[in-house]
Design goal:
8-stranded mixed sheet; 3-stranded antiparallel sheet; Rossmann fold; globular; about 260 residues; about 20% strand
Length: about 260
């Protein structure tokens, strides 16, 4: 973020713009034979929520606020990792490091009827995400994210939200599956932005949380509803559009949000 296949249905959007202090859409392809809305009990969801960058607190704040909403919705298995923020009691949180993320996924356990959410808010570059806890500046690759998603849920419903610059580069045949939804904050080669130094979230995280709070019921609706918000923010700032992207696997094309 800058500062101030047949198995999937892809979305892109030409929204108006991405905002002034950066943190690192839509064309509706219209799926054929889309499954009806699918509900999975909130208690059968598990979530790995990660603030991956430590240069500004907006990434950790986004992770905190997404994790809080999941818990409020009845999702009991939530692992929150932050790059810099401590827990409310002052204790350290698990770090934004791949080995720690894998440990948390293992601790969350597995249920046959479950669904999984992996949410990352960080800096993105072509096919990579920054994880501040990784040694020697190593970044999480597309293969790393694929392995985490497979470890989390295998062929069960899986949602990947990647909030960062260029995260549309993750929407490839290598990551897409019939059981996966991938929502990315910006198209390949595009940045995402925050509007002011004192804002709690970058534009994409802010708009996604707003769409959730406004009552979106499915992940598809959540994505649709965040697009005008992102476009408005970016138009106000007069910056190049981030063009959020999404891919909806045919088995989860109308998957409902937890408790919706």
């Amino acid at each position: 973020m800058r500062g101030a296949p047949d198995a999937a249905v892809r979305w892109g959007v030409v929204g108006l713009v991405s905002a002034a202090l950066a943190a690192c859409v839509p064309h509706d392809a219209g799926p054929k034979g889309v499954a009806p809305a699918r509900t999975i009990a909130a208690d059968d969801w598990k979530a790995l929520v990660v603030g991956g960058a430590d240069d500004r607190p907006i990434y950790d704040f986004a992770a905190e606020d997404v994790a809080g909403r999941l818990r409020d919705a009845g999702v009991t298995r939530v692992a929150l990792h932050t790059a810099s923020l401590t827990a409310p009691d002052g204790s350290a949180r698990p770090p934004a490091r791949l080995s720690s993320l894998r440990q948390s996924l293992g601790a969350l356990g597995t249920r046959q009827s479950e669904a999984c959410l992996l949410y990352f808010s960080s800096h993105g570059e072509e096919g990579t995400l920054r994880l501040a806890g990784e040694p020697n500046g190593r970044r999480a690759s597309l293969a790393d994210i694929d392995r985490l998603a497979t470890m989390a849920c295998g062929d069960r419903p899986t949602v990947l939200v990647l909030s960062g610059c260029e995260t549309g580069s993750f929407i490839t045949a290598r990551l897409e599956r019939p059981n996966r939804i991938i929502i990315a904050a910006a198209a390949r080669g595009r940045a995402t932005y925050a509007a002011k130094l004192d804002e709690r979230h970058g534009a994409f995280d802010r708009c996604l949380i707003g769409a959730y709070d406004s009552g979106a019921t499915t992940w598809r609706q959540l994505f649709r509803n965040l697009l005008p918000c992102v476009a408005e923010r970016e138009a106000w700032l007069g910056v190049r559009p981030s063009l959020p992207q999404a891919s909806f696997g045919v088995a989860v094309a109308n998957l409902r949000l937890p408790a919706r």
